Amino acid sequence: MPALITTSPSGDEAEAREIAARFGLAYAARANRLIDELLALAGGSPVLVLSARTAELFSSTQDEHGAVQLVRRRATLGMALMRLAHVLESEPDSLLRASGLRPGEVVIDATLGLGCDALLAAHATGSTVIAFEKSPLLAAFTQAALRRPSGKGRLAKAALDAGARIDVRAGDHREVLASMPDKSADVILFDPMFRAPIDAAPVFDVVRDYAEMGQLSPETLLQARRVARRGVLIKDSPRGTELRRLGVTNLYARRFLFGWLDAT
Ligand SMILES: C[S@@+](CC[C@H](N)C(=O)[O-])C[C@H]1O[C@@H](n2cnc3c(N)ncnc32)[C@H](O)[C@@H]1O
């Protein structure tokens, strides 16, 4: 059974139905059910609960003694908000510097994950970011987070504005890019799963649990260069193993390594 989406008493049933339909999740009315009852209804799949200001993902796991534990994760833009706050203070962001994104450019983020890079790209360009995520559950989780930035004031408004311009789509970028016309977007971003993930933020556990782990292939890069008008940016761990494997030159290093390929 696919993951199930529902609401808390403050949540909007129309939004839960819309997200379920867009990403292929099952919708169930809350009907006063407890989380345990919803997890049983989901038949072992996770349950995403939308409230007015928060969204939480519930799943169950067994500890080493076989006891069932409830796992609860809040959909948050944590790291993205920190990076956006720095950018609003005119501090550099490594992804923006490596990609040289300019206002008006259209970006495809081929590996949405938690949407941090997509949010920064949407803010920098002021344009739409088309974002693909292979896991429908992660796509739904991130979509819910993008609509619920924590805090108030300038930062929350900038995050909400940029998040509203991210067109989240569940899909495999290998298939989607192959079907797109030449020169459909300015820049394509790839941030595939590293063999040894280095992001220690607790919310990143959701990505580790549900992400597509497949490697980026040379064929996918060929397609991306064809679909791009300006070029393709690939983010790698500091060791640069993926960039070396793909024969891409390291372009810019800070916490991550970035490689760039010009459009064909
Ligand atoms: C390292 S995370 C990306 C993190 C993201 N850049 C951010 O800022 O939050 C990689 C994500 O890409 C997704 N992914 C990997 N291969 C994919 C594919 N072929 N198509 C679409 N998404 C893919 C994974 O499911 C995972 O969520």
List the helices and strands and how they pair.
Layout: E1 4-7, H1 13-23, E2 26-27, H2 35-41, E3 47-50, E4 55-62, E5 68-74, H3 78-88, H4 94-99, E6 107-109, H5 116-125, E7 129-133, H6 136-146, H7 153-164, E8 166-170, H8 173-178, E9 185-190, H9 204-210, H10 218-227, E10 228-236, H11 241-246, E11 250-253, E12 257-262
Parallel strand pairs: 1-2, 1-3, 6-7, 6-9, 7-8, 9-10
Antiparallel strand pairs: 3-4, 4-5, 10-12, 11-12
Helix pairs in contact: 1-6, 3-5, 3-7, 5-7
S-adenosylmethionine is lined by residues 111, 113-117, 132-135, 138, 172-174, 191-193, 207, 211-212, 214.
Report on this model:
With about 260 residues, this protein is an alpha/beta fold. It has helices at about 15-25, 35-40, 80-90, 95-100, 115-125, 135-145, 155-165, 175-180, 205-210, 220-225, 240-245; strands at about 5, 25, 45-50, 55-60, 70-75, 105-110, 130-135, 165-170, 185-190, 230-235, 250-255, 255-260. Helix 3 runs parallel beside helix 5, helix 3 packs across helix 7 and helix 5 (about 115-125) packs across helix 7. It has 2 domains: about 5-75, Brix domain (Rossmann fold); about 80-260, Vaccinia Virus protein VP39 (Rossmann fold, 3-Layer(aba) Sandwich), CATH 3.40.50. A hairpin with a 4-residue loop joins strand 3 (about 45-50) and strand 4 (about 55-60). The model has no long low-confidence stretch (mean pLDDT about 95). The structure holds S-adenosylmethionine. S-adenosylmethionine binds near residues 111 and 113.
